[in-house]
């Protein structure tokens, strides 16, 4: 086990900045996923830790040692890659023990380590098989066992499950979590798949354009994303974003206004602010009681429905709608669209006129810079001249709103 620390690591390839001033601290025994879109610098970050590439600036520490200039073999790390690369002419035993034999370990020590590793990855009884007699998942387990026998302080895994089919990938995720528990060692894992990162990690490091956006436990990234990028990247389907302008009593957007208490926000009336709301935090108005703090009703028309079995994704067009049915891709890209998820027994159909509410306690606000300025907002306090709920959509700026449960403030 060892702690891994990157201090101001930058890696430049001519005019490309692959990693940009990265500061990252990974604790002893932690399972951290580096996640982000393709080309964001995940692998390059991993390679600087492994010693496969030297950073242009900054330093890498593993345990108490500055390893920035050490070769990979002296860093106490073992790597598992997407491309499994087993030796096709060697059986499982020889593949797993290859590195140990190269280093002239005693035969008894090699046997002991191979036994333990094959036991951990559940390959007992398969040590004399050849790689072409193994499934993709079994081959990947051989690659992991090959890393385990080295007793590394840190495991580095770069998309190790990417070549497996979807079902096996989900199964191997559980296996890797079990492996982590059993080995109690530091694992740094690269993936572009946010679901993989969400399910396995102690903490997720979200990277974009070579920069660390947030490092936090999965649910913190989900519930309190540091910025709009993290908010959009973590969670599937993605969070809805609606651009608007902050007013004295909430947010005014093109199609609806959302009233809330703006006191204490680090944004002022007139500032451009983007509202973020996840599909599960939007409810049909008839089900408004399910929301902790439902907003006033927002009028919409349903477009495409996508039944998923355990829920239905409903694409909503705000306002009157034009009666045109869009594909889900077109709908997601349009500015007047919201995606809502509803239970599978919902009676909602296509082209229905529908009132929906947003759960104010779950919405997010982002400044024009993208930084998050609120996770959840409070209903505005009642005032003597509060208008009824229908007025909210017309005048968020007035700072008043009727109670969403349907009872008006008098
Ligand atoms: P990711 O792993 O997130 O897909 P990478 O770390 O592989 O991203 O790449 C980050 C950026 O650095 C990309 O723009 C990529 O094209 C560039 N890059 C990576 N390796 C090299 C290299 N050896 N030479 C030039 N550019 C590279």
Automatic annotation (TrEMBL):
Where on the tree of life does the source sit, at the highest rank? Archaea
**Upper taxonomic classification of the species?**
Archaea, Methanobacteriati, Methanobacteriota, Stenosarchaea group, Halobacteria
Sorted alphabetically, the keyword list is:
ATP-binding, Nucleotide-binding, Transport
Record domain ABC transporter: where: 4-234
Which CDD domains does the protein's record reference?
ABC_MalK_N
Provide the membrane topology annotation: Peripheral membrane protein
Bias kind Low complexity: ranges? 379-402
The record's annotation in PROSITE patterns points to: ABC_TRANSPORTER_1 (PS00211), ABC_TRANSPORTER_2 (PS50893)
The ranges of region (Disordered) come to 379-410
The organism encoding this protein is Natrinema salifodinae
Could you say which protein family the record assigns here?
A: Belongs to the ABC transporter superfamily. Carbohydrate uptake transporter-1 (CUT1) (TC 3.A.1.1) family.
* Record's subcellular location: Cell membrane
Q: According to its UniProt entry, what is the function of this protein?
A: Part of the ABC transporter complex XacGHIJK involved in the uptake of xylose and arabinose. Responsible for energy coupling to the transport system.
Look up the record and report any one GO term of the cellular component aspect: ATP-binding cassette (ABC) transporter complex, substrate-binding subunit-containing
Quaternary state and interactors: The complex is composed of two ATP-binding proteins (XacJ and XacK), two transmembrane proteins (XacH and XacI) and a solute-binding protein (XacG).
Query: Where the protein is mainly located, per its record?
Result: membrane
EC number(s) reported in the record: 7.5.2.13
Biological process, per Gene Ontology: carbohydrate transport
Q: What is this protein called?
A: ABC-type D-xylose/L-arabinose transporter
Catalytic reaction annotation:
D-xylose(out) + ATP + H2O = D-xylose(in) + ADP + phosphate + H(+); L-arabinose(out) + ATP + H2O = L-arabinose(in) + ADP + phosphate + H(+)
MF (Gene Ontology)? ABC-type transporter activity; ATP binding; ATP hydrolysis activity
* Class of the enzyme per the UniProt entry, highest EC level: translocase
